[in-house]
Write a structure and sequence with these properties.
Helix content: 40-55%
CATH architecture of the largest domain: 3-Layer(aba) Sandwich
Largest sheet: 6 strands, parallel
Order of helices and strands: EHHHHHEHEHEHEEH
Shape: elongated
Number of domains: 2
CATH superfamily of the largest domain: HAD superfamily/HAD-like
CATH class of the largest domain: Alpha Beta
Structural class: alpha/beta
Distance between the termini: 6 Å
Strand order of the largest sheet: 3-2-1-4-5-6
Radius of gyration: 18 Å
Number of helices: 9
């Protein structure tokens, strides 16, 4: 079956937001004499409904009644300090350009909020590449539930079997596969040690293979 569309995760796939956010929370923990457990943080990557809440965890560790808005503001400040020179991840711009040349439809399916996603897309000047952007406000359940991907495919007006998903996390891969998309795992340094074996294909970065190569492999798998 011919591939007609691509659906991209956002955080950690197009832009390395996940590493700087983790670093920001590490800094917040250390300012209060605590260490943020990496293995627990990894459980919430790719989802807005994970089992770990750093604010609640930190409050329990310190015995403090912490103000969520205050810590969220501090996280954003530390994130901005760490990402002033941030760029799109390797290979992203080339993939977007090649997809347009091939006439493919494109979407984003993200468990993050729309304001966060749009802020970054506009910052890097790539918002116009995407026909559809689906964020957590658009669904009732985020990844690993498949609703984000199903919504993206419906709005693109294509079949899941005609679509490739790009993901960097276990939660995201499970969502894409449950929605019946061919899924390519492209981990970042924070997610590289996660179990990504449910993906159909794993790449070290988008520079490791051309989009045309991936499409050929996906179409062969769907034949």
């Amino acid at each position: 079956m011919r591939i007609r569309a691509l659906v991209f995760d956002f955080d950690g796939l197009l832009v390395d937001t996940e590493g700087p956010i983790f670093s920001a929370w590490q800094r917040i923990y250390r300012e209060r004499g605590q260490e943020l457990p990496r293995e627990r943080w990894l459980t919430i990557i790719g989802t807005a409904s994970g089992p770990f809440d750093p604010l609640l965890d930190l409050g329990q560790r310190t015995g403090e009644q912490l103000d969520r808005q205050q810590l969220d503001d501090l996280e954003r400040l530390y994130y901005k300090e760490a990402t002033s020179m941030q760029q799109l991840l390797p290979g992203v711009e080339k993939y977007l350009a090649e997809a347009r040349r091939l006439g493919l439809k494109m979407a984003i399916a993200s468990s993050s909020g729309a304001t966060w996603v749009m802020e970054h897309l506009e910052r890097f000047g790539v918002h116009g590449h995407f026909d559809v952007i689906v964020c957590r406000e658009d669904v009732t359940r985020t990844k690993p539930d498949p609703e984000l991907y199903r919504t993206a495919v419906e709005r693109l007006e294509v079949s899941p079997l005609e679509t490739i998903a790009f993901e960097d996390s276990t939660n995201g891969i499970r969502a894409a596969k449950a929605a019946q998309l061919f899924c390519v795992a492209v981990p970042n340094p924070l997610t590289a040690d996660l179990d990504l074996s449910e993906a159909d294909l794993r790449l070290p970065s988008l520079e490791a293979a051309s989009l045309s190569e991936l499409i050929a492999r996906a179409e062969a798998a769907r034949a």
